[in-house]
Write a structure and sequence with these properties.
α5 packs across α6, α6 packs across α8 and α7 runs antiparallel to α8. This protein has a single domain, classed as Rhomboid-like fold (Up-down Bundle), CATH 1.20.1540. It is about 70% helix and about 0% strand.
């Protein structure tokens, strides 16, 4: 059976890859990261001349990546999970989920370090929201067959706890290698996905009913 068309997911992937290619060809990747990445300290009042307005950087940060491996892994996750999620919530739904994930990821990163001058780049936070949607829509719920709402609540808490644990362990592993990942952003994006995917599913069903 052919999978339904997924213009939302495909469009996000095409725009992201194109942006990476243009930045790479320009030879100004480091400058682009500083000017277009999300920098928590800017929300706290740090002024960076020439940078994009801070309110848009949670989105522009998703278009910037630290290398082809970083980009490739994110796009693999986006396409694999995004196409399935979009089949359920539609193109507009996946766009809303992705952007909301980007902003919630930035908010979580800000709360983790409001005066951090390191620009956060990459689509991992937004994709964490999509992955959460995929896990919630297609994952196997916990027990409690007699109480489906309780089963759903336990499933959400289980997914959130597991994702936070994985991100914490990844943060420790990368720290040992002298590298850093935006663990808080990944957690924030994931929580956004858990919170939004079912309302978006119900909203789409009402729209097409």
């Amino acid at each position: 059976m052919r999978s339904p068309p997924t213009p939302g997911t495909n469009g996000i992937a095409i725009v992201t890859v194109t942006a990476y290619a243009l930045v790479w060809l320009s030879g100004m990747a480091e400058a682009a990261d500083i000017l277009g990445g999300f920098m928590p300290a800017r929300v706290s009042g740090y002024v960076l001349p020439g940078a994009l307005p801070v309110w848009i950087t949670p989105v522009t940060a998703t278009l910037l990546h630290g290398g082809i491996i970083h980009l490739g892994f994110n796009m693999l996750m986006l396409i694999f999970c995004g196409r399935m999620v979009e089949a359920a919530i539609g193109p507009l739904g996946i766009a809303i989920l992705y952007v909301a994930g980007a902003y919630l990821a930035a908010a979580a990163q800000y709360l983790a370090g409001p005066y951090d001058l390191s620009p956060m780049i990459g689509a991992s936070g937004a994709i964490s929201a999509v992955f959460a949607g995929y896990a919630l829509l297609y994952g196997k719920p916990r027990g409690f067959a007699a109480h489906p709402k309780l089963g759903l609540a336990v499933n959400i808490l289980w997914l959130a706890a597991a994702w936070i644990g994985v991100q914490f362990l990844m943060g420790l592993a990368f720290a040992d290698l002298g590298m850093s990942i935006a663990t808080a952003a990944h957690v924030g994006g994931f929580i956004a996905g858990l919170a939004l995917v079912r309302p978006l599913l119900l909203w789409r069903r009402r729209r097409i009913a």
